[in-house]
Amino acid sequence: MHLTVYFFRVCACKSFKSNFECCKKITWDGEFQMTVAEFQKSLAAEAPPQGTRTTLAALWWDAKGDWQHAHSLVDELETAEGMAVHAYLHRKEGAASNADYWYQRAGRTFYRPSLDDEWQALVQGLVAVKVG
Question: For residue 29, what are the contacts with CB-CB under 8 A and spacing of at least 6?
Fold first, then answer.
């Protein structure tokens, strides 16, 4: 069970919005919940939204072209999700044997045909956190 909390902030116009325009939805563990569309929209920013899960932040930095930063976030992350993102990054790097090792550690025996499809599938899986 996740506890959902809404945090309101004062807008640039210095008024509170009651229709949730200016709130961020945060789970009990402090991580932002967002849709795939919201995640993709965030790529226009200079940095991932504060509170973005580490695995999603790695995919965010990868999409921005910073493979090193992306890899550094998941390099020692010992979760199935972290290892799956780690595998994807090594596949993108062209290190197939290293990627296969991390896919195996993640418990995955396949990956998507294209890197773009795999990135999309990883993002979709990582934002699909059940709240409620």
Answer: none
